[in-house]
Amino acid sequence: MNEDDGRFSNPRAISSIDTISALVDRRLSRRAFVGGGVAVSALALGGCGKTAPAKTAQPSFNFTEIARGIDETHHLPDGYVADILLRWGDPLFADSPTFDPDNQNSTDQHKQFGQSNDFIGFIALPPDEDGAARAILCINHEYTKATMMFPGVAENYPERMTKAHCETEMAAHGASIVEIRQDVDGAWAPVIGSQYTRRITAGTTPMTLTGPAAGHARLQTNADPQGLTAAGTMYNCAGGITAWNTYLMAEENFHGYFSGALADGHRESENHKRYGVTGSPWYVWGNFLDRFNLEKEPNEANRFGWIVEVDPLDPASTPRKRTALGRIKHEGAESVIAPSGHVVLYSGDDERFEYLYKFVSTNTFVEGDRAANMALLDDGVLHVARFSEDGIVDWLPLTFGHGPLTAENGFQSQADVMIETRRAADLLGATPMDRPEDVEPDPRTGRVWVMLTNNNRRTEEQVNAANPRANNEFGHIIEIIEPDGDFTARQSRWDFLVKCGDPKDPSAGAMWNAQTSENGWFGSPDNCAIDPSGRLWVATDGNEDTGANNGLWAMETTGEMRGTGRAFFRGPVGAEITGPRFSDDGRTLFIGVQHPGDSDGATYENPSTRWPDFDSNMTARSAVLAIRKKDGGVIGS
Ligand code: FEO
Ligand code: CA
Ligand code: CA
Ligand code: CA
Fold first, then answer.
1. Residue 297 maps to a domain
2. What secondary structure does DSSP assign to 514-573, as a single string?
3. Measured in angstroms, how far is the CA atom of residue 529 from the centroid of ligand 4?
4. What confidence tens digit (pLDDT) does each residue in 279-313 have?
5. What is the mean pLDDT of residues 586-606?
6. Nearest ligand to the CA atom of 541
7. For residue 284, is it within any domain?
8. Rounded to the nearest whole angstrom, what is the distance from the C-alpha of residue 534 to the centroid of ligand 3?
9. Domain count of the chain?
10. Closest ligand 1 atom to the C-alpha of 1?
11. Host H or E run for residue 424
């Protein structure tokens, strides 16, 4: 979902008082590139068309770029096909009822593919007895929008909402875990009723809280006096697949679910305010369920904002909310195994002026010992990033007792530091960013790609070296270079890859390689993926109002082409593009089309497209596509 309500919660931004370092950073923000980066010398410098001369640049990608534009359907380069794999409401289990959008209910939705698919994880399984490729897809259902989901609701929202609507919404949140198989022609299809099939929801799926905050008094509720078992997960945006084949679901905008107000001076008032949990929700679940009403359950909001680890190989397993990874509006949760064997997990806090985090496990990954690896995310050090104008990023540990993270500042334990991760990071002087979305580390290169989607509230006084544009409407991409590939490092280097927006519009202040065509630039980078060849692909969410379409772009990251975008896919009107995930052989690209038809003023009855069915009896539906090359080759080859 493109959360464009102008909201932000960081008091450092609200007061316009950043640190002195930001003032210094601002003065130095004309710096185009830091030294010592990877092949930076031949890059385009700035958005005014000044570039290094193109010599014998060799693109990493070979496909015919698609044209810019917005219409009712999706578009691909010549030579590619997109199969619609899973749509909202599609059956998953042997006894799943047929989707009847005019008569939805929670019971049916629990057995059907959920709404608003976002993250896509791919876990290969051994081939079946006929040699067909098999895999498990792990797919987040980020959110629901009642006016685009139910007939008759838009004309009188929220008064028309019933408890049954809310329970159906809760069932449409969460995740679907789906086995897929490939036929002899290369097309994938879901295996209905597979032993792996699972729905996880916001309503009923029990989840164990683990790590330093588990059981803490601030996580206890009437329904769970021990503070150890949460009910469900919601607003799961991006995520990750670990080296031990578990599925991480990142809980993002949990503030949107809680109504009611805390009494003045309540223990959690300041904490909830820091997360925007201020009783003005997007959902009306609190009208029907006490746990979403802050007056009745002031601690329930503390049980969200975590990363959830799921074992997709065991549908009976209990998902775990890993509190050692911090409590923020987690966009994603991609991890790598560092050369030392430690797990390093990166996650952005997707709100204006929030921060970038990295977790380093205490223990090391053991190949083949899945049981031991299952505990790796419960013990380690969470760090927050401080970017400097000299191209350095310092990772500041969020450890109780260190620096300002003491009783003097209201932290009694590591549990408090994790529950109030944002405030802890404020005190450490982390760099307020332009909405960190997906973050992808590449173990082959030691580089980490950070998508910063946009920030239309940053003022000229608030720019800093890593976020150098006021009113940053189009976002940018930062590269972090871990020293010698040591992802555990406390100090790394950083550089820009691109500053997004139209390079021909001087007011945008964009920065692309001059070889980027008029179709190759984009705005609002959100999800990204690294393909099996190590190439970066970037999906977008936003800027349709400027005429910029949402889609997927191939990004050159090295050599003379570095900073060149090339348009590969675009979605139908109203949609953002989510998921991107490659099969292990690089021959299938799974991609999410989220909220098609949800343009300004659109409703269930009148979406701006009826993609993907184009049936007057069916509203628009989010869906997962499987994209292949007609000749069976590697995507982008
Ligand atoms: Fe759910 Fe950060 O986008
Ligand atoms: Ca987004
Ligand atoms: Ca996102
Ligand atoms: Ca990703």
1. no
2. TT--TTT--S-EEEEEE-TTS-EEEEE---GGGTPPPEEEEE--SGGGTT-EEEEEEPPT
3. 5
4. 999 999 999 999 999 999 999 999 999 999 999 99
5. 98
6. 2
7. no
8. 22
9. 1
10. 1
11. helix 421-428
Give CA–CA dist 452/437, Å, rounded.
6
pLDDT on residue 278: 94
Confidence label for 55 from pLDDT (cuts 50, 70 and 90): low
Q: Enter the pTM of the model.
A: 0.94
Query: What burial class does residue 234 get, using C-beta atoms within 10 Å of its C-beta: 0-12 exposed, 13-18 middle, 19+ buried?
Result: buried
**Spatial CA neighbour of 245 closest among 121, 332, 131:** 121
Q: Report yes or no on 271 lying in a domain.
A: no
261 domain residue, yes or no: no
Other residues' Cβ atoms within 10 Å of the Cβ of residue 279: 15
Tell me the ligand closest to 348's alpha carbon: 1
Residue 156 maps to which CATH number?
2.120.10.30
Question: pLDDT tens, 426-463?
Answer: 999 999 999 999 999 999 999 999 999 999 999 999 99
Of ligand 1's listed atoms, the one at least distance from the Cα of 453 is 2
Ligand nearest to C-alpha 252? 1
CA of 576 to the centre of ligand 2 (A): 8
Residue 437 structural domain: 11-45+60-88+108-219+231-252+305-629
Range 533-542 average pLDDT: 97
Q: How do residues 156-187 score in pLDDT, each as one tens digit?
A: 999 999 999 999 999 999 999 999 999 999 99
State which ligand 1 atom lies nearest to the alpha carbon of 142.
1
Rounded CA separation 493/507 (Å): 29
**Lining residues, ligand 1, CB within 6 Å:** 1, 142, 237, 252, 331, 350, 437
Q: How far is the CA of 350 from the centre of ligand 1 (A)?
A: 6
Q: Cβ neighbours of residue 315 under 8 Å, at least 6 residues apart?
A: 177, 195, 196, 197, 198
- Checking if the pLDDT of 33 tops 60, the result is no
Q: Does pLDDT of 51 surpass 70?
A: no
Q: Quick one: tokens of 428?
A: 């450490």
Q: Which atom of ligand 1 is nearest to the CA of 238?
A: 1
CA 98 to ligand 4 centroid distance, Å: 31
Cα 2 to averaged position of ligand 3 atoms, centre (Å) = 8
